[in-house]
Amino acid sequence: ILGTFQNLALPLTSTSDALVIYNTGQPGADAYDDTAGPPNVITPPGTTITITAGTPEDHVAINPAFRFAYPSPDDRVYLVSGPVSWFCDPALGTLRRDSGYPIQATEPVSSSAGTLEADHVSWNDSRQWRELVGEVLPTSGQVEALREIKDAGEVDRVARAAAIADAALGDVLAMLSSGVTESQLALELDAAMCRGGAESVAFETIVAAGPNSAKPHHHPTDRRIGRGEAVVIDFGATFDGYRSDMTRTFYVGGEPEGELAKVFDVVADAQALGVAAVAPGVACSKVDAICRDVIAAAGWAER
Predict the structure, then answer these.
(1) If you ran DSSP here, which 8-state letter would residue 72 be given?
(2) pTM score, two decimals?
(3) Which end of the chain has fewer CB atoms < 10 Å from its terminal CB, N or C?
(4) Is residue 3 very low, low, confident or very high in pLDDT (cuts 50, 70, 90)?
């Protein structure tokens, strides 16, 4: 394994060195299992590693080419025995190195410059920041990446937000058969969440009845909810800054019949399979595909 990499002359070709997985703070990131070699080594024995100078990063070529057995997201960091950050570059199909910066799971920037989230800071605001602090560089997605994995306290807050919303729905559910309007039910649900401990609603509550239930982002109206109608309620609570999001569909005045009954059954099956597929390390897209496949098999792929 290489020593202090940035002190080596480039270009460099070696068959004795190796790339290893570095713990980026994500569960399992430092637990690559390679029973054929040293722990955490990802390059097979005899692999030639060639490093050439590039701008702004140096580039790595691996021969013979191989596929990492460890699932790697775009920005997982790889370390070569020293303070060197390696980044997967899906566009180029290579690993990229930036040395001299702290190891981190996103693109490193010069420690002498400040950074601004380019997706959220206007050009005029960035000019004002430069006048205040000097050089600033654009970044994207760093805050979002930090927020992806919740600690135990955050999970508790999300769970509390969900429990508040769930209890509030139970408080107002009987109103469905009383002839209230969509707007009235939404208002009562919002009030019930606040009484239950929410600091606010998570977003504008949706109550959509009858033909309106087919509109995914319907705004509640003065239309009264009638018997024999499907009612979609999409709502959530905010607790200590953390939000919940829940969608429920009800049939007023009995059990759904005909095609609507089939819709309820298919959606319930899709939900059950999706929930069963959720596990650490499973991509959200896979869970989504499992649910969609059930709906597609019922003939509603485009609906």
Answers:
(1) -
(2) 0.59
(3) C
(4) very low
CA distance 256 to 69: 48
Output the pLDDT for position 210: 95
CA 198 to chain centre: 24
| Three-state DSSP class for residue 199 | coil
**H-type helices in the chain, by residue range?**
123-133, 142-147, 152-172, 182-195, 258-277, 284-297
Identity of the residue numbered 106: T
Peptide bond into 56 cis (omega under 30): yes
Buried b / exposed e over 186-199, threshold 16 CB at 10 Å, is bbbbbebbbebebe
Q: pLDDT tens digit string along 236-248? A: 999 999 999 999 9
**Amino acid letter, 60:** V
- 153 compared with 105, residue with greater pLDDT: 153
Q: By the 8 A CB rule, do 76 and 105 touch?
A: yes
How distant is the alpha carbon of residue 246 from its chain centre? 17
Helix axes 284-297, 258-277, angle to 10 degrees: 150
Residue type, 156: D
The pLDDT assigned to 1 comes to: 29
Position 69 scores a pLDDT of 53
The span from the CA of 146 to the CA of 73, in Å, is 15
Rounded to an integer, what distance in angstroms lies between the CA atom of residue 250 and that of residue 231?
Answer: 5
> Phi/psi of residue 120, each to 5°?
-130, -10
Contact partners, residue 179, CB within 8 Å, separation at least 6: 224, 225, 226
pLDDT band at 91 (very low <50, low <70, confident <90, very high): low
Give me the residue label for tokens 């039910």: 185
